[in-house]
Amino acid sequence: MFPLFKPHHWRRALAAAGALALIVVSGNWAEQRELQAKMEALRQASAAHVLGLRGLVEKHDFLPYAAARHPEVQHLLNAPGDTALRTRVNAYFADLQSTTGAAALYLVDRNGMTLASSNWNTPSSFVGESYRQRPYFEDALKGRRGLFYGLGLTTGQAGLFIAEPVRAGAGVLGVAVVKISLDPLERVWRHSAYPVVLRDSHGIVFLSAVPEWLFHSIAPVSDADSQWIRAHGQYGLRTRFDLLPWTITAGKGTPGYTFKTPLQGRGANLLALDTPLPELGWTLTVTEDMRDVQQAKQAALALATLAVALLLLAVLYWRLRERRYAEQRTARLELEHRVEERTRDLQEAHAFRKAMEDSLLVGIRARDPEGKIIYVNPALCAIVGYSAEELLGRYPPYPYWHPEDLEKQARESDEALQGRAAPSGFESRIRHKDGHDVITMVYTAPLIDTDGVNRGWLSSVVDITAQKQAEARQRDQEVRLQRSARLASVGEMASTLAHELNQPLMALSNFAVAARALAGRASPDMLAGALDDIIEQAKRASEIVRRVRALINPQRGHFETFAVEDIILHAEALLKPELQRNGVTLQLSMENPAVQVRGDKVLLEQVLVNLIHNALHAMQELPRQRRCISLTSQRSGPCLRIAVSDQGPGIPKDQLEQVFAPFFTTKPDGLGLGLNICRTIIEAHSGIMTVENRDGGGATFSFTLPIVP
Amino acid sequence: MKDAPLTLYVVDDDEALRRSLLLLLFSQGLAVQAFESGEAFLDAVDLRQPGCVILDLRMGAMSGLAVFDHLRSQHSPLVTLFLSGHGDIPTALEAVRRGAYDWVTKPDTQQLLDKLPAAIAEARARGQALRMWEELTAREREVARLVGLGQPNKEIARVLVPPCGPRSVETHRANIFSKLQCANDNELGRWLAAHPWLE
Questions:
Q1: Residues with Cβ < 8 Å from B178, sequence gap 6 or more?
Q2: What predicted TM-score, i.e. pTM, was given to this entire model?
Q3: Which of A390, A640, A670, B137 is the most buried (most CB within 10 A)?
Q4: What is the ipTM score, two decimals?
Q5: Domain shared by B90 and B188, yes or no
Q6: Residue B23 touches partner A, C-beta closer than 8 Å
Q7: pLDDT tens-digit series, residues A157-182
Q8: Is B23 part of a structural domain of the chain?
């Protein structure tokens, strides 16, 4: 899950190493610092101890020298038997001893025999004792100042012996010795917090606040040294000098060192500083407990750890905060984005709605349940002519209600407010502010708010005035169209009919051939489908025929009473261009143009047009000047007879009876339906259509119509 | 060489008639693609490919004749068979005069079935001619046209852009004869005249 080489893991490892290093370094730094402080303290302590030691030595240093130069002392050496002199010298020594605080002051002759001593009158008097084997005596006898620390041969008390030769000219008469006790020092040291140790030149501890360390050596003592010590009785009869129970560790970059030792029943780790005292041949060792250093180090380590932990916590907290902040930021951005989007959407929606409402051609009107107008859009204002300010807040009756329809408007309004408005809308005539009438279609729907509460009614109002007018115009036009469609020449109509019929017939034929081909081969479904199609196409063909029949069948509903000249003049007008083009003159002869007939004007015009057209066609071969058609109308009993005559070749006798038969034609592309249809029309008007050849050439087609009395 | 698939089209604005033609031709084992108007047909069909189109003369928007005129203006190799009513025969005659293959008078299904195989054969022949023609290089086509007009090699060499020697014209001519399987100039001329729709 966590790849080892992810950068942030390296970073973590690095940070951990850094933190560890920081802790260690700060521990070491604190240790070093404490160590240096300790060392400084040790130096100062050492200096103080050295000063004290030197002070003690120097304080008594002069005593043997002074005593050696005293005349009576010299005399005594020359005359050892002089008792009085000896007594005086003894007294003198005792006086000096008590004055200076030395342990003892005494005089030894050249043989090492003590002649006088400050403690002559004590049981441990040195007088008469021999000190010839003592090193200080030997040194002094050789004319040198003798210096020695050791246990007293007589007293067993340790002390520092300083010996001065008593000279007489160039020779040495004897030796004056002062013994100094280091007990005061030792007592002082005992009060010091940490052990102070004095070692002699052999490394043997001879003065220490810690009794266990006394007469222990820092390094193994050689046999020769051991013998020497024994011979000179330095430390009594001791020949064995055990090693100090110290485990020494050399100091790191400092003059001192540390050692471990049991102390007062527990292990102690001590910091030690050696100060050599060359004039005495000793080494002074002062110590300090390392505990402080260790404690300082531990404290520093703890502090550093704490600091690092705090730092780590801070970093963690910071990162957490950053992350949270980032998350919050992302969330905020997202929120802002969403808000922005939403706002945009809303704005768009609002703009869209506004644009929609404003550009709607449909008027919108909202009313509260009491009928108060609470909203109108510009289209509604345009429809009614009142401004929004004039309409908002109005209750019924509204200003645009048509004064003639007030009752109806009130009823419709009430119905709408009670929710009983027809969902398909209702037509409503209103009065525009400027006075003209507007026909509208009103659709009302409940206005439901988001909580589902019916807050009123929303009506959309469509101005259908134009539509109504268009409808009226359309109706007029349709009537006219119908008329003109029926006015188209019957021949043309027949051609259209032929095409119309050809379509289903061809399809029928195709399906039938396909069905024959498919029979027994393809799936029955396919065959059945083809047969269904055949039935369908047959129906379609019969429908076309029915339509044509309906077209040419005069309908009583269309019948009207009119003067005969109406249709004759109209037919003439219709054909005028064609007649002129063919150079044909049409002679009209009406006995009584105002005679009234009843029928379908359009169809009767059709018959006339057809007959004139046929006449025109019959004269195609004639020279232009002879092309003349005469149209006459005259009373014939209770009927009116209208005849159309041409100057053409006439109709062959054997065909006279066939001209009205369907599909008889003399024209190459004719259908032979025109005359047949004409006769049907006339018969539907209770008339008769006949044809005859004129005596002077040409044919006359005539029909009768009943005269309306 | 196997005959390339030949496409048969029906263009008629009468839904029932269109469907009946589809079924009829299907029952005769012919695959047909039908269109409800001339515009739809011209939009959808690659007019450069040979095929056969059954075209109703009398249609609502674009008449059959207008569609045919468009095909002609595009030098389309499509073979046109008109469907005409009784009264439209003069129009159909005029169309054939202008290069339509033939017409069928409605509602004569058998006539259609009689005339269709020849029309399809013609379409295949045109397809073959087109393939042969397309084997010629542009240069060879140019030369072929000039040879078809009866121009001598010298004149052709001069007229060509860029001009070349009469010898290379001779080479072209040999190639053309070989590719169009013509024996001589006359045959080539007749061949070209028989396929005026070639570009």
A1: none
A2: 0.39
A3: A640
A4: 0.82
A5: no
A6: yes
A7: 788 888 888 887 778 888 888 888 88
A8: yes
